[in-house]
Hints:
- By secondary structure, the protein is α/β, with parallel strands linked by helices.
- It contains 12 helices and 16 strands.
- The chain has 3 domains: 3-47 and 97-172 and 269-326, FAD/NAD(P)-binding domain (3-Layer(bba) Sandwich), CATH 3.50.50.60; 67-93 and 176-266, D-Amino Acid Oxidase, subunit A, domain 2 (D-Amino Acid Oxidase, Chain A, domain 2, 2-Layer Sandwich), CATH 3.30.9; 342-447, no CATH class.
- The protein is 35% helix and 26% strand.
- Helix 5 (298-314) runs antiparallel to helix 7.
Amino acid sequence: MERYDVVIAGAGVAGASLAYFLSGTDLKVLLVDMRPFSRAGDKPCGDALGKHHFDELGVEYPKGEELTGVVKGVDVYSPSEKTRYRVMGEGFQIDRVKFTQRFIKAAADRGVEYWERSYALEPILGENRVEGLKVRRGGKVEEVRAALVVDATGYPRVIANKLPDEWPITDRLKPEDAIVAYREVRRLKEPVEEPEFLRIFISKAKAPGGYWWFFPYSLREGLVNVGLGVQHGVGNPRPKDLLYKYVLTRKEFEGSTIVEAGGAAAPTRRPVNTLVWNGVAVVGDAAYAVNPIHGGGKGSAMITSWCLAKALKTASRGDVFTAEDLWSANLCFLQHYGIKQASLDFFRIFLQQLSDDDLEYGMSRKIIRETDLNTVSMKGDLELSVVDKAMRLLAGIGRPSFLLRLRAVAKFMNRAKDLYSKYPETPEGIHEWVKEVAKLYSEFRAKVLK
């Protein structure tokens, strides 16, 4: 039986980038994926990626067939669409398959073994550790032994969801902490004005607990990515039905034709309790590494993989990579993304409780300005001074209960950042720390969502 140092299940952006970051080392790595290479990374999404992720990780910008558009910023519209926030920020629209294939090709060229059309079935469990992975390949089931098995299977968490409940990496997702989305790539009859700007439309009536989007491909004239996401697990209508009812009936879509279509689910909460445990790790959507506000996950997926690769390169080699061996991956991810993500989760829960009237009021009064919104999105910071200033300006004409709740949310966001900044330095402290996280959410729901 062949043995590997690392087996990666799933060759989406998370798994493929991890294989790339580990390639060229003395680690023996296997990448397995259920899809054929021609469809690698083909998960329906908005296809947008911030430029800062590439700069931070030292990854080459998309070019050629990988690049479908250049982004200058995002316009966020209120429910009535009378108020628009323009948030500047450079990014790219990508061909997600070509982009993922780039990582796989580069990894394979530098020694990573790649199995396409191979299904990760379940982990092979030992005593308080994972020892390998069962894979269906070519009509038969093989047992692949490894010092580390990485779950990069995305939302289904094929491996992590079959681990014991008492392992902190299991950390099961509640249905309401996810979003379900449907999107189509359409060819429009008329050109799009300012195609370098993505559009996000917030409306609880049209997209409850989520939003609908209009993302032009500026380098593919006439093509747009249009979709709609709703909060999962609370009885919302199907996103496809809402998209066809409220969005595709708009004038700009008259005479448009479908190029491709599909739907997917994604987590939209705080990060997983730990990326690593004994013989097992999670990256990307399987690690819940998704922005809770806008649902983007490709950039943060690459960060999880980059941090795990850094930990693996410096870990002691043995028959198993333990949680202690790889714990630095957690500290790395929290520093680069996870602390912000945890803070944004509280803002996400608050926003999902608001009515369209509240959202319209908050945006039309510019309680949070464009510059403040950019700070919230990039750093997870909602400064109390911003809310206090709004309360003073709107005294007597505003909605005091709304403003007071917003002030409370800002405080909890700061407390979340503080708690995640005090993440345990070793695995021994994780269980007590998880209890503190649960207490903070319980207090938040009692004081802000009552």
